[in-house]
Amino acid sequence: MAAIDTASSVKERLVARRCFFLGAPFNLMSRSTVLRLLEDNPPGRRFRYVVTPNVDYVVRMSRDAELRRYIAGAWLSLCDSRPIRTLARLMFIKLPLITGSDLTADLFRSVVSPGDAITIVAATDEVVARMRSAYPQLTFHAIVPPYGVRHNPEALQACVEFVAQAGSRFVFLAIGSPQSDMIAHQLSCHPRATGIGLNVGAGLEFLVGTKRRAPVWMQRSGLEWAHRLFGDPKRLWRRYAFSVIPLAKLFSHELLGRSARHG
User: Which UniProt keywords apply (predicted)?
Assistant: First the structure.
């Protein structure tokens, strides 16, 4: 019993190691540690969720109290942005980079086991079909909510009840933010919801090839955003263009706050 208690306390200390940067919480743990925590997930444990904030997420969060509440309720909050990690380094903060896409691929490669039940809230039927084809050894429970689900309380609640009833080990919420965050937060308050939810954005689409991820050299050089922009300019140009100045302001506030604390 003492060994079990010790292991549990170590996990709690790992999860508790967070820093706040640009107004957002980030867990300070390696990718391998995150995978170990996700793997050690006994059946029936109350629902918890993982978020992976990027620049757009952090900027929106600075303006949206509801989104701040959703991220505050997350079990793990992992940095999904090389620019944010770079800014953190300028302030001598070692912020691990763990993207939702990488985490999704890691889980299906090394954690999810044959026979596992997986629930996915997907953007399209094509993603669902490709997941079932790519992983025939898994049991998938899938729901594709209607467009604009964030403004449709009945459809949103249907997603929550579907996930809670399925009772899967892992739940992949892949319909973007804030709708994935809204579902995850409601599930965390649901008395019958179990498992771990992962808000992974386009992670499933990259995994099955309905969207192409940037080449590795672009990922490593911090240019993945450019690849996404060129691939979907109509949808993304406003997001990126209108994130630059707010991000700079958040960073300047961070610098001023640090100077005041150490002045």
Answer: Glycosyltransferase, Transferase
